[in-house]
Design goal:
Layout: H1 2-33, E1 37-41, E2 43-59, E3 63-66, E4 71-76, E5 83-84, E6 89-93, H2 96-139, H3 146-186, E7 188-190, E8 195-200, E9 207-208, E10 216-221, E11 228-235, H4 239-247, E12 251-256, E13 259-271, E14 276-278, E15 281-290, E16 302-319, H5 320-324, H6 338-350, H7 360-369, E17 372-379, E18 382-393, E19 397-403, E20 410-415
Antiparallel strand pairs: 1-20, 2-11, 2-16, 3-10, 4-6, 4-9, 5-8, 6-7, 8-10, 11-15, 12-13, 12-16, 13-15, 14-15, 16-19, 17-18, 18-19
Helix pairs in contact: 2-3
Length: 417
């Protein structure tokens, strides 16, 4: 009996010692394999909701300068990027043919005017002859027969008609001279506006053939330092937001590759109605006006635009990473919150079905449920779910409209590697 009691005491002592020894080992093993969570704080600040798009920088106005007459380019007085004033000479087309046309038409006009003087002199002579004949016949009807009187009368009428023809010929010659003088003036290609030459499409000695199509010689852009346009291509789904932003006069920020560290600011000036369809995607052009005092914005640059369409000031916000996080292992979640994981799986299965057959009330309820989310915080050894309702969201934060959260709370955003 004493021997059996002795063995029982030994077994109890060994068991106690084993338990005392293994408990730290087991606890250490559990701690080693327990996940460590990455967290981010709930903060308070501003949220900007924006629409992203790409666009192309263009001048507000591009004036195409062409040629009305044909011929070789004899002078070229303007070049790329040159600043010009209105009526500055840009180029000259060889004027020799057009000078010869002017000289020919001047000679023709002089001939027509001389012919008018000749006919007018003959008319005056015929009028005097008719007047003398009438005087003689008044003295004595036998001095001149009626036939002779008719001859004087119709000769005067004929010369009056010839005078009108000669005067019309003068007008015709004057018109031809004006045309040739205008063509001669057109050989001087002058700038129609003050601006900068952004394109030159001719070289000295090049022959222009304006008889088939008016050739484009230069493109002059006025007031580039005052304002430039950025033409953005915006999806039809976002046009309503853009129109609201335009009504509120909200700013537009954009970047260009040439100056990646500079942020340019503009305003929505036009939402144009000439939409285009590419591969069943409908887009509309939006003109954003931006100042350009430093001449950094050049035609053709590609811009990445951010249209600010809504703004919340000083609101409670959570990092978007906290909304994206969802635990996948239920053993790390509080028992009372594990049903949420099951509900999440059911939601994922429902997402596979289309909502096109839902009633308007069901669609409104579905839309409202999209704003009900869960975030997670660490409570002891487990993760605790916190239900919140969300509002406006940007690229980094989402507004919290209701929920048991406070500024500074730590939310789980992922697992540490």
């Amino acid at each position: 009996m004493k021997r059996a009691l002795k063995w029982i005491v030994i077994l109890v002592v060994v068991s106690v010692l084993g338990t005392a020894t293994c408990r730290p080992i087991v606890k250490g093993f559990q701690e080693r394999h327990r996940p460590h969570w990455r967290t981010a704080k709930v903060s308070r600040g501003d949220i900007y909701f924006d629409v992203r798009a790409t666009g192309t920088v263009k001048p507000v106005l591009s004036v195409s300068v062409g040629s009305f007459v044909s011929g070789p380019v004899s002078e070229l007085d303007a070049d790329f990027n040159q600043r010009v004033k209105k009526d500055d000479l840009l180029a000259r087309i060889d004027p020799r043919i057009y000078k010869a046309d002017v000289a020919r038409d001047e000679a023709t006009l002089a001939t027509r005017k001389a012919d008018v003087q000749r006919v007018r002199a003959l008319l005056e002579e015929a009028q005097r002859n008719e007047t003398r004949a009438k005087s003689l016949r008044k003295e004595n009807e036998d001095f001149l027969s009626p036939k002779e009187m008719d001859a004087f009368h119709f000769q005067r009428m004929s010369l009056e008609a010839q005078l009108k023809v000669a005067e019309a010929a003068v007008q015709q010659a004057e018109g031809a001279l004006e045309t040739s003088q205008a063509n001669l003036a057109y050989t001087e290609i002058r700038s129609p506006v003050d601006g900068i030459i952004i394109d030159r499409k001719i070289d000295r000695g090049q022959t222009l053939a304006a008889m088939f199509q008016t050739p484009e010689l230069f493109i002059v852009a006025p007031d580039m330092e005052k304002k430039m346009y950025v033409f953005a291509t915006v999806d039809e789904a976002d046009i309503g937001l853009i129109l609201k932003a335009q009504a509120k006069n909200l700013p537009v920020e954009f970047h260009v590759d040439a100056y990646p560290d500079d942020t340019f600011t503009g305003t929505i000036e036009q939402v144009r109605k000439n939409s285009t369809t590419t591969e069943n995607v409908v887009t509309s052009p939006v003109a954003v006006a931006a100042p350009n005092p430093d001449m950094k914005l050049l035609p053709g640059m590609t811009a990445s635009l951010s249209f600010q369409v809504d703004h919340r000031k000083d609101v409670l916000r959570v990092p978007n990473a906290a909304l994206r996080f969802y635990p996948t292992e239920s053993q790390y979640v509080r028992p009372e919150d594990r049903e949420i994981l099951t509900g999440k799986e059911d939601e994922e299965e429902e997402d596979e079905f289309s909502d096109v057959h839902l009633t308007p009330e069901e669609q409104a309820e579905l839309k409202e449920n999209l704003h009900r989310r869960h975030v997670w915080e660490q409570e002891g050894e487990f993760l605790k779910a916190i239900s919140i309702e969300t509002g406006l969201s940007d690229m980094k934060y989402t507004e919290v409209t209701s929920g048991e959260l406070a500024e500074g709370d730590e939310l789980v955003i992922g697992k540490k590697e």
